[in-house]
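In this section we walk through a basic example: taking a raw amino acid sequence and producing a predicted 3D structure, encoded as discrete structure tokens. The instruction is simple. Fold the sequence below.
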Amino acid sequence: MASKLSIPAKPKSLALNIGLNGVSAAAYSGWDGPLAACEFDANDMAAIAKSKGMKATVLLTKKATRANLLAGMHSAAKALKSGDFFLLTYSGHGGQMPDTNGDEPDGKDETWCLYDGQLLDDELYFELSKFAAGVRILVLSDSCHSGSVTREIAPPPPPPGQRVKLMPAAVAMRVYAEHKAFYDKLQAEVAAAARKAAVVDPDAALAQVGAAAQAAALVGRFNPAVVLISGCQDNQTSMDGDHNGAFTEQLLKVWNHGAFTGNHGSFHAHIRAALPVSQSPNLFVLGKAANFLAQTPFTV
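The resulting token sequence is shown next.
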């Protein structure tokens, strides 16, 4: 009796969409970081995810805590296997703090400003490294300090009357000073865990190669395939808006309800072309991402 042909299982897909229109003043030295469009950004990204059949989790402002974000990433890492897809989007303030574990050439760690505390770039990369080999991960970050490694140049002033997704440097230093023990311990723990897992730090790799798109060549132990498209270079600012952030607004226009059919590189180029020179989105990859990079964004 002839056996029936097995139908390949459809890849599993999950999304975690984060948007903060403010942060807890208690965690940020009295600064509450008001923004207007970040919750819209998160909901719009979740709508794209759902249109592609993904199960989307949305964390808005007070729900966008460190614990909830990390729990969402841990859950996704456990659930997904080779060939599956994870979409991680963030819209909110970006920040920086002194690097204490020596992994940053410029002495600064980038952060996402979550409601009750910052998430370090070291943490983000380490959590991404826990995903299984072959998982495809698309990260979209609409915040300041979201590019690659050029961090020494002060960002230019924003256009008059516009809000930037940037925690002011003076606030950042006050926050770090008040919570120094927590953030220093966090950096030490992440560095120790990364060494134990033999994970190459992406920032160190990027600094060595000089061109972010070549990072995968040096991050050989980074198991998943990651494409990150950010709102701006690290020496620029991402602008907030009334309904969407500038980066997300142009992303949605380029995506055009799914009419876009190019690959990730073309997607990035079209978004970048639509924004002013003062905000130039960046793209880099981690892991063996060549095939993923050639796919149309949000392809499950």
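Looking at the output, two observations stand out. The first helix runs from residue 38 to 51. The chain has a mean pLDDT of 80. In the next section we compare this with other chains.
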